[in-house]
Fold Ectonucleotide pyrophosphatase/phosphodiesterase 7.
Amino acid sequence: TKEKNLDFIALYFGEPDSAGHKFGPESPQRKNMIKQVDRTIGYLRQRIRESGLESTLSLIVTSDHGMETVIKTNEIHIQTVANFTFKDIQFELLDYGPNGLLVPKEGKLEHVYSVLKNAHPNLHVYKKADFPRRFRYANHSRITPLLLYSDPGYVIHGVRCVPLERGRGEHGFDNEAMAMKTIFRAVGPAFRRGLLVEPFESVHVYALLCELLGITPEPHDGKLLPLEIPGWGVAHAPATPGHDLLPAHPTLRAPQPRTQMICRSLGFNW
Ligand SMILES: [Zn+2]
């Protein structure tokens, strides 16, 4: 609110994720849930208007994944793989969908890898060092020596008879799969109206938020997307007295009208 002078507000909706898991992405239940969430967003925008904040508040609506239908016959059971035993495993993180993390016991890495590598045509098994770079995932100390992921529609079963969070829909598949794509919509003084842009990765949203808020970003993997397109301007976050909000990028030093803010989005525009 104006009185409290907040700079950044984040809202998280647990739907339609829950309905998507339980009933599947194509189900009427999930479609109804999407309508409900859409009404809620409509209410939010209405209250922004009624509160006189439309000219000063920029709103971004996005999510972190899509949803894929899981078919029962497409389950991958690690326990049934020939020559595989959990006795060779020191630590496992399985049963959470299409991903798995394994720490083999000392001296067992090569054996476990060779046993699982070609165990199932829709299961991908990697040693940490060989995990595809495009996932931006394996270059971290918390990631285990062996990594597993399955193709869209397939989920990995490990040690539990009743899998966790398992229903008719799942996410966490390869982010190049169309069903994993999500939405990005933005409206407000920081964004150009009616602009439709090419798809982009969500890893870049952080840089955009930092730019809008006049914050110097911490180290991250994203880029400030609008800067890559010649001639496209970027507006500055609303000026706060005592703060220099001019971005460091040379093309941005000259103040520009805020309506020139470019933001990439996918799909329809407000
Ligand atoms: Zn979920």
The chain has two domains: 8-64+182-265, 76-170. The domain at 76-170 is CATH 3.30.1360.180 (Gyrase A; domain 2). The two ends are 23 Å apart (CA to CA).
